[in-house]
Design goal:
Blueprint (H helix, E strand, L loop, with lengths): L2 H14 L9 H15 L3 H10 L1 H11 L10 H15 L5 E6 L5 H12 L6 E7 L2 H9 L1 E3 L5 H11 L17 E4 L4 E4 L1 H4 L3 E4 L13 E6 L8 H13 L1 E9 L13 E4 L2 E4 L3
Parallel strand pairs: 1-2, 1-7, 2-6, 7-8
Antiparallel strand pairs: 3-5, 4-5, 8-10, 9-10
Helix pairs in contact: 1-3, 3-4, 5-8
S-adenosylmethionine binds next to loops.
């Protein structure tokens, strides 16, 4: 697929909706479009024609080009750091506002909620979550996941909650049933109601840089989202997060993401995380 082909696709979306993929990284976008062509049995011209004519199809294509891979306690070592290097520092606050930007199907949201409950902070935390894709938000709200396909959820859970890498003498036994039920017959993991009822979900397009939650945050997690944007858009979104963090608030990015190329005077690097710098 040529760059000009990519341009045709991006223009068709942009010209017929409010979505703008102009500043997504080419590589991932190309791969997703190629898959779309195969799945829809059309060539690029046919795809562009359909995007112009069929609003419902366009909405579906927008959902299909975004990557929704996620898991419970993804990158367990990062969660140990979030616990000890971030949340511990905020634990004495009256309330803590947390935003999962690009929450996908909700596993990251429930991971944090579970961890907060183990730390005794669940009730004082306000949890917000957003994504561009309304299908994944609907999925997240149900809190129901496949069991056999996701056995690593349990080992991640054990690694984060039962092994305390910051204090080896303290090994706690946390039962899965405290947070979710496992039904092997129906192949389901079901998050408990108190977890499902906690987050406020909203559709939000990060490209637009509008915080429709209308509040500032103590912690913003935007993990494994910026890798799909080009450097210009990454910096624009990071700037937007900076503005929507409270004084000394934390920004958490994915394992392979960083603030490289972003002005150094705006954030302090704290281990793998970033803390808003305020004069
Ligand atoms: C790979 S998932 C990451 C999920 C989770 N944060 C994690 O790390 O496991 C990326 C998510 O970003 C969302 N996304 C992509 N572009 C977006 C945009 N412009 N605005 C909001 N969300 C977006 C996708 O729909 C997808 O659910």
């Amino acid at each position: 697929m040529e760059v000009s082909d990519l341009g045709l696709f991006i223009d068709a979306i942009k010209g017929n909706s409010s979505y703008d993929f102009s500043n997504y990284s080419d590589k991932s976008l190309k791969r997703r479009i190629e898959r779309l062509l195969v799945e829809n049995k059309v060539n690029l011209k046919g795809l562009v024609h359909k995007l112009r004519k069929d609003k419902e199809f366009l909405e579906q294509v927008v959902k299909d080009v975004t990557v929704n891979t996620t898991e419970l306690f993804r990158d367990p070592e990062a969660w140990q750091e979030i616990r000890h290097r971030i949340v511990n520092k905020l634990k004495d606050k009256e309330s803590i506002n947390i935003w999962h930007a690009g929450c996908s199907t909700g596993q990251e949201v429930y991971s944090f909620a579970i961890m907060l409950n183990e730390m005794g902070l669940f009730n004082k935390c306000n949890i917000y979550a957003s994504d561009l894709n309304t299908d994944v938000i609907d999925f997240a709200k149900k809190g129901e996941y496949k069991y056999r396909f996701n056995l690593n959820y349990l080992s991640n859970f054990d690694q984060v909650l039962k092994e305390n890498t910051y204090n080896y003498s303290e090994v706690v036994d946390v039962e899965y049933e405290k947070y979710f039920t496992i039904d092997k017959k129906t192949d389901k993991i079901q998050m408990k109601r108190f977890l499902i009822e906690k987050p406020i979900y909203k559709k939000m397009d990060l490209v637009k840089c509008e915080n429709t939650f209308l509040i500032p945050f103590d912690i913003i997690l935007c993990r494994n989202v910026l890798i799909y944007f080009n450097l210009g858009l990454q910096n624009k979104v990071i700037d937007f997060f900076h503005k929507n963090l409270k004084t000394n608030g934390f920004l958490v990015l994915g394992k392979h993401e960083s603030l490289l190329g972003y002005p150094e005077n705006k954030f302090d690097k704290k281990g793998k995380f970033y803390r808003r710098k305020d004069a």
